[in-house]
């Protein structure tokens, strides 16, 4: 099979933001008096849509506060971006250069909404890297629904069977496989048992994509 499109997840895959996002949600919950939650408990949920995170942690009734929660969380996140607390993983440039040299279309599909996504990509200097992007506010159903990856493939005029999805969570791999795409999980810290992962392949670095594609 000759793949044409490689779609990346963002948080935890290309940028080291999982802890920053988790801290932001915890900050917002505390500011609104909705409870004190350890950011470590929230880290496992990063990758889900924001409303799903709120529902999982605080319950359905807390969704009535979602607009304010989201505003506080996003403000906290962008402040951290401005402070330089958000960075690309070191293996990203080499992996992107390899894919470009082989003629792959490069996409990005993330639960992060576009009003945060685009300024973040511009700040990191990688907006022009992507041929197509899909933010979380462009779909009705977030991960683990396959909708976001199917939309990325449609934007790139690629078939699901021609698409590889690279992420870091089971939300990514479940969504990708439901879409009929090849799922690759990057596990930089070696914490996953590949035989128990829902992904088709598990790699330790994005540079390992050169061995697969």
Low-confidence stretches: none
- The total count of helices amounts to 9
CATH architecture assignment of the largest domain: 3-Layer(aba) Sandwich
Helical percent range?
40-55%
Task: Round the mean pLDDT to the nearest integer and report it.
Answer: 94
Q: Quickly name the level 1 CATH class of the largest domain.
A: Alpha Beta
Keywords:
alpha/beta; single chain; 6-stranded parallel sheet; globular; Rossmann fold
Describe it for me?
A six-stranded parallel sheet has the order 3-2-1-4-5-6, with helices on both faces. The chain has two domains: 5-16 and 87-212, HAD superfamily/HAD-like (Rossmann fold, 3-Layer(aba) Sandwich), CATH 3.40.50; 18-82. With 213 residues, it is α/β, with parallel strands linked by helices. It is built from nine helices and six strands. The longest helix has 17 residues, at 66-82. The mean pLDDT is 94.
Task: Please outline what is shown here.
With 213 residues, this protein is α/β, with parallel strands linked by helices. Helix content is 41%, strand content 12%.
């Amino acid at each position: 099979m000759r793949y044409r499109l490689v779609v990346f997840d963002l948080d935890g895959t290309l940028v080291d933001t999982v802890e920053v996002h988790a801290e932001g949600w915890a900050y917002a919950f505390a500011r609104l008096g909705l409870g004190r939650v350890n950011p470590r408990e929230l880290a496992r949920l990063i990758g889900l849509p924001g409303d799903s995170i709120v529902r999982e942690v605080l319950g359905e009734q807390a969704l009535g506060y979602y607009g304010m929660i989201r505003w506080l969380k996003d403000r906290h996140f962008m402040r951290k971006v401005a402070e330089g607390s958000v960075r690309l993983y070191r293996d990203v440039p080499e992996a992107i250069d390899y894919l470009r040299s082989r003629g792959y279309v490069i996409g990005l599909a993330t639960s992060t909404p576009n009003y945060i996504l685009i300024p973040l990509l511009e700040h990191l200097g990688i907006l022009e890297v992507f041929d197509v992007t899909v933010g979380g506010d462009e779909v009705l159903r977030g991960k683990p629904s396959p909708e976001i990856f199917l939309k990325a493939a449609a934007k790139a005029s690629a078939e699901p069977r021609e698409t590889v999805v690279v992420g870091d969570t089971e939300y990514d791999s479940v969504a990708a496989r439901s879409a009929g795409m090849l799922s690759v999980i990057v596990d930089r810290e070696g914490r996953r048992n590949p035989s128990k992962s829902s992904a088709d392949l598990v790699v330790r670095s994005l540079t390992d994509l050169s061995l697969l594609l």
